[in-house]
Amino acid sequence: MGYAEEQFCLKCLSELHSQSIEDMFDFIYGYVESRGCFKKEWDKMTQKSECPLPNSCVIGKCFK
Predict the structure, then answer these.
(1) Nearest CA to 10 among 1, 2, 22?
(2) In the prediction, which pLDDT does 11 show?
(3) Which 3-state string (H, E, C) describes 13-38?
(4) Side-chain half-sphere of 5: how many Cα atoms within 13 Å?
(5) Which among 36, 24, 9 is positioned nearest to 61, based on CA atoms?
(6) pLDDT on residue 2
(7) Residue ranges in the chain whose pLDDT is less than 70
(8) For residue 43, which of 64, 24, 23, 57 has the smallest C-alpha distance?
(9) What is the DSSP letter of 44?
């Protein structure tokens, strides 16, 4: 996605790209799912309690 040197929360990325948090999540989720190296790390989080930013995210979409 072009952000190799910095980390951004979902809310920050959505604001940076003038998108809703939900739309940004859908984009990022598709990106992560298509790349095994990212997907394997994403898949390690199995509990909502593991989310580092539960109040500024779309936690219901991450943990279906």
Answers:
(1) 22
(2) 87
(3) HHHHCCCCHHHHHHHHHHHHHCCHHH
(4) 0
(5) 24
(6) 58
(7) 1-4
(8) 64
(9) T
CB 47 within 8 A of CB 63: yes
Distance (Å, rounded) from C-alpha 23 to C-alpha 34?
17
Rounded Cα–Cα distance for residues 15 and 21 (Å): 8
**What pLDDT was estimated at residue 22?**
92
Backbone dihedral angles phi then psi of residue 57, each to the nearest 5 degrees: -140, -175
- Residue entry with tokens 């190296």: 37
Written as six digits, the tokens of 6 are 């910095």
Specify the pTM: 0.73
